[in-house]
From TrEMBL:
Domain of life: Eukaryota
Cofactor(s) this protein requires: heme
Keyword Hydrolase: no
Keywords per UniProt: Heme, Iron, Membrane, Metal-binding, Monooxygenase, Oxidoreductase, Transmembrane, Transmembrane helix
Presence of keyword Heme: yes
UniProt binding sites for heme: 382
UniProt name for this protein: Uncharacterized protein
Transmembrane stretches, start-end: 12-32
A molecular-function term among this protein's GO annotations: heme binding
Family the entry assigns: Belongs to the cytochrome P450 family.
Length: 439
């Protein structure tokens, strides 16, 4: 991708932010300690908590929607430096920027993961995200049975079949496709097929449909302002989560314990929207950069020509898709799916010469070592990164070898963040099947 966009991204993409909950008396003590109370250690980060209750939440949400959040964060960093304080979602938050902040965020034992209020309150409370230390290692080991390299290698043929089925059903015969909704539905189907072994017969299709509907609603509300009024996005999210739990319990063949249900729901959310966004934005970047598109196409056509008609992709084929994966990584650098990473301080901790008190939260936004961290880092590094790589490569292979495509004239390629990036009109592309494709 071109040098200009790379430079811009390096300059604008912040590296980390932190936010945490602190009770007012504790805050008062921290702010005024030293005036006769206990001696202060490091000072609190510069900045302010903004207006009561809302703090800086609405400003950040507005910037996310307008895709100006990087500028918003850059202005903060310029005004207050790489460590500052603010208030987000009613919580005292330390906002940290830069590679050293990323390293701190991924390795400090004083920080733990945290979820949005919707997650914490109702969606799923007993997940991998809510446990630490040995307990985290135990739950993570359970998940890795399905996500480790050997398991993912076995998923390649299943993913290949789902991608073909999806493109035959939803792309063939159409002149225009909205990529993001299509990829969300594809990644959801891939997950149901290879992780949960849901088939394609009528009963399984109905379960998939029900799960998909509830998860769309649920995903929309995860970062909504937590106002539990009738018809608010947040309350719809909670209702969808109740129905989703029942469907997941059915999927697990009865009523599994709450921990299993919660982790399945969490995995479903973690696994499909992120990869759908990566595939979608990769297409957007390729459309804007015809040289890169031509190189991806050449790499994929060579692989397609080495195969018999209808033959599924294999693990070896994927290892030949180096340029395509480099383009995907560049896409994640330019448009990271995780805009920031949140942590909560479980103990008073210092970073960059400032105190981050126990109870505050940390958020990190991705960019040099510890600069480019699209899959996180440390003990919490994304366990689904291989799964996402294979799924992305298989999908891109079939899309570029089976269709000529370009951004529709009515689509400007702009996007908003919720905080996951979502393109306007879902990224409309005009498509035309390539009949001589090897499929
Ligand atoms: C392009 C696709 C993806 C991206 C960019 C991505 C990114 C991330 C990031 C940045 C984290 C760390 C968050 C933190 O430290 O707070 C994470 C965690 C996680 N991801 Fe992914 N992810 C992707 C796909 C997947 C897939 C396909 C799966 C499962 C099949 C998955 C499952 C998970 C899980 C379970 C965690 C929590 C790990 C833990 O807390 O120990 N992700 N992901």
């Amino acid at each position: 991708m071109d040098a200009d966009s790379r430079t811009t991204m390096m300059a604008t993409a912040p590296a980390i932010v932190a936010a945490l909950v602190l009770s007012l008396p504790v805050l008062y003590r921290l702010l005024f300690a030293g005036a006769g109370g206990k001696p202060t250690r490091k000072p609190l980060p510069p900045g302010s908590f903004g207006l009561p209750v809302v703090g800086q939440t609405l400003g950040l949400l507005r910037a996310l929607r307008a895709d100006t959040a990087e500028e918003w964060l850059r202005r903060r960093a310029a005004a207050h430096g790489p460590v500052s304080r603010l208030s987000l979602f009613r919580r005292p938050t330390a906002f940290l920027v830069g590679p050293s902040a990323n390293r701190f965020l991924f390795s400090s034992p004083a920080l733990t993961t945290m979820n949005s209020e919707a997650f914490g309150r109702k969606v799923s409370r007993r997940t991998l995200r809510d446990v630490a230390g040995d307990e985290h290692a135990r739950v993570r080991a359970m998940m890795m049975r399905f996500l480790k390299l050997d398991a993912v290698k076995r998923h390649v043929a299943g993913m290949d079949a789902e991608v073909r089925r999806h493109l035959d059903t939803h792309w063939r015969g159409r002149a225009t496709v909205a990529v993001m909704p299509s990829m969300k539905s594809l990644t959801f189907d891939v997950m149901c097929a290879v992780l949960f072994r849901l088939g394609t017969d009528a009963t399984a299709a109905a379960v998939r449909q029900e799960l998909s509907t509830e998860f769309q609603q649920l995903a929309r509300g995860i970062w909504a302002v937590p106002v539990n009024l009738p018809f608010s996005t947040f309350s719809r999210c909670l209702a969808a989560s109740r129905r989703g739990r029942r469907a997941v319990a059915g999927l697990a063949g009865g009523l599994p314990d709450e921990e299993i249900t919660d982790n399945i729901i969490f995995l479903m959310i973690a696994a499909h929207d992120t990869t759908a966004a990566l595939i979608t934005f990769l297409l957007r970047q390729l459309d804007a950069n015809k040289d890169a598109y031509a190189k991806v196409l050449q790499e994929q056509v060579e692989i397609a020509r080495s195969k018999a008609p209808g033959e599924a992709l294999t693990w070896d084929d994927l290892s030949r898709m180096r340029y395509t994966w480099a383009a995907a990584m560049e896409t994640l650098r330019l448009i990271p799916t995780s805009f920031s990473i949140l942590r909560k301080a479980v103990d008073d901790v210092e970073h960059g010469g400032y105190l981050i008190p126990k109870g505050w939260n940390d958020t990190a936004a991705a960019i040099p070592p510890f600069s480019f961290v699209p899959f996180g880092g440390g003990a919490r590094v994304c366990p689904g990164n291989e799964f996402a790589r294979v799924e992305t490569l298989v999908a891109v292979h079939h899309i570029v070898t089976r269709f000529r495509w370009r951004l529709a004239a009515s689509c400007d390629g702009s996007f908003s963040r919720y905080p996951m990036p979502y393109p306007s009109q879902g990224l409309l592309i005009d498509i035309e099947p390539i009949d001589d494709a090897n499929h």
